[in-house]
Write a structure and sequence with these properties.
By secondary structure, the protein is of the alpha/beta class. It is built from seven helices and 15 strands. The protein has a seven-stranded mixed β-sheet with strand order 1-2-3-4-5-6-7. The protein has a six-stranded mixed β-sheet with strand order 8-9-10-11-14-15. Helix 1 (56-63) runs parallel beside helix 3 (84-91). The protein is globular, with a radius of gyration of 16 Å. The two termini are 31 Å apart. This is MBL fold metallo-hydrolase.
Length: 220
């Protein structure tokens, strides 16, 4: 787990491991091993959890005796939500998901729906930091990012990574859509804004913005 600080809040990363697509068409029989970033934002008293991947035990241990103000889900893909219900139960907190991704959520959790719907502009407050929801469709229809202007940070889920946009290989995905989301919702953020993605290393808005034309030329 790594920690960064800013304002009154601090950001903690938990790397969880699991298997994606086990027993599902289009995947190897045993699935594909994958690592996810789970993010905690808060202080010594309270936190928000961003995504709940693979390991409810690890997430609950990291939260400890702090109050969990909610679990904010960047999108409905299995590897970002498969520990969500159990984590919410252990932390006695609520789940938030954009309604356009309910069809993906249901593939993992059936008719056990999240508690609240996320929408563009929805805000949360933790440890003196305001968190704003940005609807960034493309990877999935209900993908969102969470921006923290005071900390010059954005949690970019699977929308923006070091080196480019997230995958758009599914019928419900859109490469033009994800590029438009990044261009209009993320690139207006200050260049020094750190993007904390759902997998892998951090990047910054300033590092990624100059590559937009290259992404368009390569088509992914």
């Amino acid at each position: 787990m790594t920690t960064g600080t800013g304002a009154q809040a601090r950001i903690e990363r938990i790397i969880t491991t699991g298997v994606l697509g086990a027993g599902r068409p289009g995947y190897p029989a045993g699935g594909v091993p994958i690592e996810n970033n789970v993010w905690l934002l808060g202080d010594d008293d309270a936190v928000l959890v961003i995504d709940a991947a693979h390991d409810a035990d690890a997430i609950a241990r990291a939260v400890g005796d702090r109050e969990a103000l909610g679990i904010l889900l960047t999108h409905g893909h299995e590897d970002h939500v498969n520990a969500a219900v159990e984590t919410a139960r252990r932390l006695d907190t609520h789940l938030y998901l954009h309604p356009a991704d309910l069809f993906l959520w249901e593939e993992t959790h059936g008719d056990r729906t999240p508690d609240f719907e996320l929408a563009e502009g929805a805000t949360f407050l933790v440890a003196g930091a305001e968190v704003a929801t940005l609807h960034t469709p493309g990877h999935t229809p209900g993908s969102v990012c969470f921006a923290l202007p005071a900390l010059r940070t954005v949690f970019s889920g699977d929308t923006l990574f070091e080196g480019g946009p997230g995958a758009t290989r599914w019928d419900y995905s859109s490469f033009p859509g994800i590029v438009e989301s990044i261009r209009t919702r993320l690139f207006p953020l200050p260049a020094e804004t750190v993007a904390h993605p759902g997998h892998g290393a951090d990047t910054t808005i300033g590092a990624e913005a100059p590559a937009l034309e290259d992404w368009l030329a390569r088509g992914w």
